[in-house]
């Protein structure tokens, strides 16, 4: 079997910390042959450090020489680069969020359909051991139909003080589009991708715009802070289920919180840590898993699924249409916050028109 030739566009922390090691762990299936970054010196350093043969200042020059690409650029450029790669006949794994708008997502999906190439989005929380265990429990009907989902991704004082995370033009938002999107995607996937019909949301950034910051993840300028650091949302679905979302980089809470809790008609579960809660045999039962199989690093199964999909050996765990729904909901939460009103969605009509 010929090795899948993989390139990387954007070689910042996520590329070096997750994607490069994960692909290099698949040496029997794939090889990284090139990198491209607007910071050419950084690209050259990464290439030398990880024994990658080619560096490209312009990513377009790399596309004819690779089979697949991993995009780890600021969010603003996701759609543009992904469409160019797909049109060049290259499979794409794009970092989350998929894009800054549903219109950009639609262009990516259309390019994938026209080229026949894989388009996947790096929502790696789906590949976490606990998430895989929860999905299995859901598919086997252990808790029945989901009724209420509580989704929390709360950090007490962890505004990313590096990169462009607080640049609204390049990123499109803050805590929701960067961090909350992972838990939102995971929640909807575990629910079985129900159709959303109405969204309400509120966003805040007062804490990050005050002087004398105490922040555990580096320094940032509170005077120029322009994105959200705390967001709440309420999503109502066509099947009657509802989802309560809260996410933050900065919030006056005791400890960080990360969990998806699902209450169903027959039982409930919590993902982090994994618990199964049921009423059976006249008792209230709470079950914990003493062992959950899988890789401790979700980047590894994510990379393997992408490579196997490119080679025709597997089915995508993260489909682009599902990632588009997450972007649509993020868009609606921000819109609701700005208008002070709920946002009604006609998701079925949108899908039919694509």
Q: Can you walk through the features of this model?
A:
By secondary structure, the protein is of the alpha/beta class. The protein is 34% helix and 25% strand. The strands form 2 sheets. The chain has a 9-stranded mixed beta sheet with strand order 14-13-12-11-7-10-9-8-15. It has a 6-stranded parallel beta sheet with strand order 3-2-1-4-5-6, with helices on both faces. It comes from Fictibacillus marinisediminis.
Number of strands: 15
* SS strand fraction: 15-25%
Oligomeric state of the chains? single chain
Helix content: 25-40%
Number of domains: 2
Q: Would you tell me the structural class of the helices and strands?
A: alpha/beta
Shape: globular
Roughly how many Å apart are the termini? 36 Å
The average pLDDT value, as a whole number, equals 97
Low-pLDDT segments: none
InterPro entries: Gfo/Idh/MocA-like_OxRdtase_N, Gfo/Idh/MocA_Oxidoreductase, GFO_IDH_MocA-like_dom, NAD(P)-bd_dom_sf
Pfam families: GFO_IDH_MocA (PF01408), GFO_IDH_MocA_C3 (PF22725)
Protein name: Gfo/Idh/MocA family oxidoreductase
Domain GFO/IDH/MocA-like oxidoreductase: 132-269
Protein traits:
six-stranded parallel sheet, 354 residues, 11 helices, 2 domains, Rossmann fold, alpha/beta, nine-stranded mixed sheet, Dihydrodipicolinate Reductase, domain 2, 15 strands
Précis, in short:
The chain has about 350 residues and is of the alpha/beta class.
